[in-house]
Amino acid sequence: GQLIGITHQNQAASRLSGAEQVLKQHHVHHRHLIHHHRIRIQRIALVAVKDKAFLDRFNEVVEASFAKGKVDCEAIASELCVGRVQLNRKIKAITGRKTTEYIHELRIAKAKDLLERTSLSIGEIALKCGIEDVGYFSTLFRKSVGITPTAYRNR
Question: Distance (Å, rounded) from C-alpha 126 to C-alpha 138?
Answer without folding.
Answer: 8
